[in-house]
Amino acid sequence: MKIKELADIAGVSVRTLHHYDEIGLLTPDTNKVNGYRDYADTDISRLQQILFFRQLNFKLTQIKEILDSPYYDKTEALQIQKSIILKEQSRLNSILKLIDKTISSEKGEMMMTNKEKFEGVDFSHNPYEEEAKEKWGSDAVDKSKRNLKKTGTKEAERRFNEIYTELANVRHLEPESEDAQQQIHEWYEFLNEIGDYSPEMFKGLGDMYVEDERFTKNINKFGDGLAQFMQQAMSIYYENHKK
Fold first, then answer.
1. Closest alpha carbon to 57 in 17, 28, 84, 86
2. pLDDT at 143
3. Which of the residues 14, 32, 170, 174 has an alpha carbon 20 to 30 A from that of 79?
4. Could you report the average pLDDT of every consecutive run of 10 residues in the chain (243 residues)?
5. What is the pLDDT of residue 10?
6. Full-model pTM
7. For residue 4, what are the contacts with CB-CB under 8 A and spacing of at least 6?
């Protein structure tokens, strides 16, 4: 699909799609013959996700970090987006009820105390980012996503897959074995290339691999039981390197 066609069906401007390309958020292939952008089905699906996140007030930088994260799962993201929207629907209904009560009060049909003018509605925060952080991981994981750009997304993904494949190849060993600890050290070193992890943070990240089924599912794609093996090996690594 050409850029004008996609802009028309998605209800965005061509300028917007150009901007998404420039910042690396949505980068279609370029036709070598005519130089036009060609949007594949995967690009169109990614644009849909971008626009969903935009409707939830996420910044473009946040959206890019989420979509480029090795922990990202589209079906899970859709379920989370639905959950957020349902919560926002409930919040807006509460606001509407409060507005109706306030209108009645202004008409003299009822009395409202000052406290009642704010009851039932939380004006203190925007729920979207908190929900995303709750679902997608801890501060350590957020830091990994923010700093993937330091290495370069494609190179980081290559290294990520390489290290996980090597770990999967030794998952039959005891997690405290020399080979297992050497491979888990490679993972620790890589994380510290894209972020700043202490051995304690490293252990905490490993614990998430088995406590959060989303992490477990994604990691075990490299090999059954890998998440559990990594958690044990990372815990042993922490014990050997804690200060």
1. 84
2. 52
3. 14
4. 92 91 89 82 93 84 81 82 82 87 90 81 57 50 52 70 92 93 92 78 86 84 92 93 78
5. 93
6. 0.50
7. 14
Residue keyed to tokens 């209108």: 103
Both tokens of residue 156?
């980081």
Q: What residues are paired with 37 via a beta bridge?
A: 30
By residue count, the chain amounts to 243
Paired residues of 29 in beta bridges: 38
pLDDT at position 146 is 54
pLDDT at 131: 56
What is the C-alpha separation between 39 and 30, in angstroms, rounded? 9
Cβ-proximal residues to 174 (8 Å cutoff; 6+ apart), any chain: 180
* Residue 88 exposed, middle or buried by CB count within 10 Å (0-12, 13-18, 19+): middle
With 0-12 / 13-18 / 19 or more C-beta atoms within 10 angstroms meaning exposed / middle / buried, residue 65 is buried
Ranges of beta strands (E only) in 97-193 are none
**Helix/strand/coil percent split, the chain, to 5:** 70, 0, 25
